[in-house]
Amino acid sequence: MRHRSEEYDIQIIKSARKSMSIEIKPDLSIIVRTPRHMSKARALRFVEEKQDWINRHIDTIKREHEKIETLPLLTELEHKQLKDKARDYLPGRAGYYAKKLGVSYGRITIRCQKTRWGSCSAKGNLNFNYLLMLTPPEVIDYVVVHELCHRLEMNHSRRFWELVESVMEDYKEPRAYLKKYGAVLMHRAGY
What we know:
By secondary structure, the chain is of the alpha/beta class. 50% of the residues lie in helices and 16% in strands. Strand 6 (118-120) and strand 7 (126-129) form a beta hairpin. Mean pLDDT is 90; it is low at 1-5.
């Protein structure tokens, strides 16, 4: 359910949860997660109650956007070097973690995508974004593990996250890194 306020696009997502939460996306849209029984009016009141917190976070995101815009874009040569580095490095990490998980996979494709760090097709083919090579090794491993876990669970259910955690206990840190710095990396690629 979407609601348009004067300043923000607000999306309300209902699920089997007990409390409400607010997430502000890099595009400054707001996601409000509520219990299923919660009314839209109550969710919007919650947004109003949290307006100071929302404004502080939006100001922070805007400042980060301004910093990002001053970063140099990758050159054509740098793009090629990152792609070559990813082609050399990522298959080894995929092989290593596939053994740990007891899964197989098909083809590995390396490219620069605007919105994804990786993906796994129903046929088991893996896609990885070569911009990962600009991140720390544990972030790369997290994306590899994430996509390989889709070989067992093609969703983001609790079971899926338990699988990820069974191989990488501290996966939340690399995941947070991508949320925090993902826009910077995409900008440097020219997106």
